[in-house]
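Structure in, sequence out. Go:
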């Protein structure tokens, strides 16, 4: 696959300082200038100033300059302007207006020893579980995916598929499609919405214990951050726990997402009803699907 990962995301918020503190507590490493690194993916988040919360930029990593040339041609067919800067290309998504930067980037190399779990009749682990022995803050390994609300889902989705070259992994008819630019089941999902907004960013952690430890620590500091979790998605299979940053953007800890290594062996599915959302866990609160600040953002969007 010539596209191989998300590189970074820039989130615009009105309350930069508070939001920066939140993502430090979330476990990302702050560089002091609003940019953050993950353990494995380098600089993957920037918090910038904006009159209302929104996605400002998303970065996609590719293998070589030929990929950047091909994507420029694809975007040109959609009548979208591009600007070349060395081995990078910058364009603007036509509906929500965020920048997308395509750049030649190194692959993320991840090494880990699988967490041993015991099973009925099968002892993989002697002694206490690693999950109860860990101490210290949870450190997300990489940026996994970004979910975007668009007033024209089809057009924003076309931007990612026909424009950039994302592949569709699964569909929820009339609502969204899960799209990938890596071997992970999804890196971007665009859902139909009454206003353009950032629904959530999702950050990979080691395993389900790290999801629980991370979310518990965040909620000890402020229980109002809770949105939805702990549960397991059906589409993509990942364990999840969603929290809310001080600007209203959701951030997800996830682990154990499906991977698609051979495109030929993957059959995209069509999911409807609850299965499109989750396999087990508490039911999603209404504010997960329609965040409480959507109406205010629509007013803000109309007045700006
Ligand atoms: Fe997610």
């Amino acid at each position: 696959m010539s596209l191989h990962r998300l590189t970074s995301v820039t989130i615009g918020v009105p309350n930069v300082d508070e939001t920066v503190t939140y993502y430090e507590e979330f476990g990302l490493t702050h560089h002091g200038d609003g940019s953050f690194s993950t353990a494995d993916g380098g600089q993957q988040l920037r918090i910038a100033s904006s009159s209302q919360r929104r996605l400002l930029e998303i970065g996609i990593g590719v293998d070589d300059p030929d990929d950047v040339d091909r994507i420029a041609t694809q975007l040109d067919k959609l009548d979208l302007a591009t600007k070349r800067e060395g081995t990078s290309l910058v364009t603007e998504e036509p509906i929500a207006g965020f920048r997308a930067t395509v750049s030649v980037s190194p692959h993320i190399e991840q090494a880990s020893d699988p967490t041993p779990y015991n099973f009925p009749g099968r002892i993989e682990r002697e002694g206490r579980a690693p999950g109860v022995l860990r101490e210290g803050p949870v450190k997300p390994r990489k940026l996994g995916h970004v979910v975007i609300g668009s007033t024209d889902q089809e057009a924003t989705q076309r931007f990612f598929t026909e424009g950039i070259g994302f592949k569709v992994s699964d569909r929820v008819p009339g609502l969204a499609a899960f799209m990938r630019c890596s071997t992970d089941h999804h890196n971007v999902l665009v859902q139909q919405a009454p206003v353009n907004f950032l629904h959530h960013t999702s950050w990979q952690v080691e395993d389900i214990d790290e999801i629980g430890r991370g979310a518990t620590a965040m909620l000890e500091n402020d229980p109002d951050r809770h949105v939805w979790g702990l549960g397991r998605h059906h589409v993509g299979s990942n364990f999840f726990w969603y929290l809310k940053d001080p600007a209203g953007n959701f951030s997800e800890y996830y682990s154990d997402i499906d991977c698609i290594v051979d495109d030929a062996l993957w059959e995209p599915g069509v999911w409807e009803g609850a299965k499109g959302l989750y396999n087990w866990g508490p039911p999603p609160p209404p504010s997960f699907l329609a965040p409480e600040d959507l109406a205010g953002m629509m007013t803000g969007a109309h007045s700006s």
